[in-house]
Amino acid sequence: MERLLSLNQHRKRWGARRHVVADPDLAAMRERIIDAGEAVQTRGSEKSLDRHLANLRCEFSGQSELLFHHAALIVLIRREVRAAENVERFITLWTQEAEFLCRNLNLRWLISAADTFAEHAPDPQARAIGMMASLLGNTVKVGESDRYIRGAEALAPLPDRIETLQTELVPLFEGMSVFTVGTDDTLRNMYWRLEPFFAHGPAGMIFKTVYDRMQVNDTAFARLRALHHRARTGWWNEGTDE
């Protein structure tokens, strides 16, 4: 009720009708490249839908128009613009173009897509997998944000601590302990449990792409991977190296 009566919510939807693409030619969009000058990533959300989408179009300058169309659909869904129709278009887009989208979207938009599946997918399992992908992405973001805030980016691994972990249990909290860096099989076992979810439609493809990207970007996963030396307990797909 509060959202319904909110003037701000209505402002965010003004002018939305002209941004709804009823029957888009996805193949043509995929081939068209946006030329909007220098690409600039958006930060936050403009109240004006026209201005927000114009900024987003600039963010995708030099990239396929299909990627901007995907972002615009998410914006329209979040602003509750003909939500049912746009959710259907979003699901259709992912059904037809999942491979292209996973290959070309950055993590920001993959996680936004996962959020949209989590909230709106008609398939309960797709919702759950979308939530898993979002949780993974945002949990890593929490850790890396904390690392930045504390100025810990330049800290190097301490060899004596790594050596201690080979023979001693180092507690964290509530029964959890530090990984046995270099040999631990916990993440390998987790990967095996995740594989069936990775195979479940577009949501699974998003989840796998987010997971794989976390292994090659500067994250705790990748930093632990760099210290890992027991091949049979690796938790990454070698084919994802970049």
Description:
It is built from 12 helices and no strands. It has helices at 2-5, 7-11, 26-31, 49-59, 65-78, 83-104, 107-120, 124-149, 159-165, 186-198, 201-216, 220-227. It has 2 domains: 2-96, no CATH class; 129-240, no CATH class. α6 (83-104) packs antiparallel against α7.
Query: From the alpha-carbon coordinates, what is the Rg to the nearest angstrom?
Result: 21 Å
Number of strands: 0
What is the average of the pLDDT values? 90
Shape: elongated
Question: Secondary-structure element order, as H and E?
Answer: HHHHHHHHHHHH
Q: What are the low-pLDDT stretches, counting only 5+ consecutive residues below 50?
A: none
Proportion of helical residues? 55-70%
Major sheet summary line: none
The tally of structural domains comes to 2
Terminal Cα span: 48 Å
Helix/strand-derived class?
mainly alpha
Beta-strand residue percentage:
under 5%
How many distinct helices?
Answer: 12
